[in-house]
Amino acid sequence: MSVQASDVLAVIKSRPATIPDGFSDAAIESYIDEAKSIMLEYCTLPQNIQEVPDVLKYPWVEIATVLMNNSAALTTGAVTQLHEGDSTVSIGSKKTAQAQLYDSLSVNNVRIMNSFRTLF
């Protein structure tokens, strides 16, 4: 068997505390679609894959959930210093949004995805 986006949606909806207030099914599905491409890219699987292996179900759920809950918070830099006189602004470098996403995933789900990584 393979995992479909509808399976991921069912798991997310069974965990209502993980869904931000006001999110419609369409919004959740957009994050599920985005999560799939991120997961497949990380695993180095083809983006047009028709059958996602069952074992990737919960990594897919977790990535979609993290994307939903952190969509506004993920940034690539933060203001670290600001002066009004002569307008000095310093922006500190941080990890990219995708790197922050991978850092927030559980070790177990990263391990599962690592088992699919290959070099091309």
Walk me through the topology.
Layout (H helix, E strand, L loop, with lengths): L1 E2 L1 H9 L11 H19 L8 E2 L3 H14 L6 E7 L4 E6 L3 H8 L2 H8 L6
Antiparallel strand pairs: 1-2, 3-4
3D structure, described in words:
- The chain has 120 residues and is an alpha+beta fold.
- It contains five helices and four strands, in the order βααβαββαα.
- The strands form two sheets. The chain has a two-stranded antiparallel sheet. The protein has a two-stranded antiparallel sheet with strand order 3-4.
- Helix 1 crosses helix 3 (57-70) and helix 2 (25-43) packs across helix 3 (57-70).
- The protein has one domain.
Summary tags:
14% strand, alpha+beta, single chain, two-stranded antiparallel sheet, two-stranded antiparallel ribbon
Short description:
This protein has 120 residues and is α+β, with helices and mostly antiparallel strands. The chain has five helices and four strands.
Structural class: alpha+beta
Neighbour order of strands in the largest sheet: 1-2
Helical fraction: 40-55%
Radius of gyration, CA atoms, in whole angstroms: 17 Å
Strand tally: 4
Distance between the termini: 26 Å
Quickly count the domains: 1
Average pLDDT? 82
Number of helices: 5
SSE pattern, N- to C-terminal? EHHEHEEHH
What's the main sheet like? 2 strands, antiparallel
Binned strand content: 5-15%
